[in-house]
Amino acid sequence: AGFATDFIDVLGRLAAALAAQPKLKVVTNSGGMNPHACAGQAKAVLAKAAQSDPAPSVQAHCIGLLARLGYHDSGYIDFLDAAAASGPPAVRQAAQAALAKLTPRR
Question: How remote is the C-alpha of 106 from its chain's centroid?
Fold first, then answer.
């Protein structure tokens, strides 16, 4: 892998705590020799939490983080489309804002 894979496990367990502290920044040197792969795995963990965490506040926070990171996987964009139309209010608002940032004008 070329990076500290345990960081990805820790990030997944911390999603709720990170959402509760939105100004908290995670600084790590876990990227090692392959920071792009580490970043990709971190984005995947956030995308999973955005789509499946039971707490709408965690979902919304992860959606916002991924928008800031420019994450635009096609399956994730499909999720945002659905969430923008019918998700809980916080998730719907975050999805709408993310779509506005990540997709060209429709």
Answer: 23
Rg (CA), the chain: 14
Model pTM greater than 0.90? no
| pLDDT tops 70 at residue 106 | no
Does 52 score more than 70 pLDDT? yes
Alpha-helical runs (H) found in the chain = 6-20, 35-52, 56-69, 74-86, 89-102
Sign of CA dihedral 104, 77, 24, 7: negative
User: Quick one: 15 exposed, middle or buried, by C-beta within 10 A (0-12, 13-18, 19+)?
Assistant: buried
Query: DSSP class of residue 54?
Result: S
Distance between CA atoms of 74 and 40, rounded to whole angstroms?
15
Contacts of 102 (CB under 8 A, 6+ apart): 67, 70, 71, 72, 77, 80
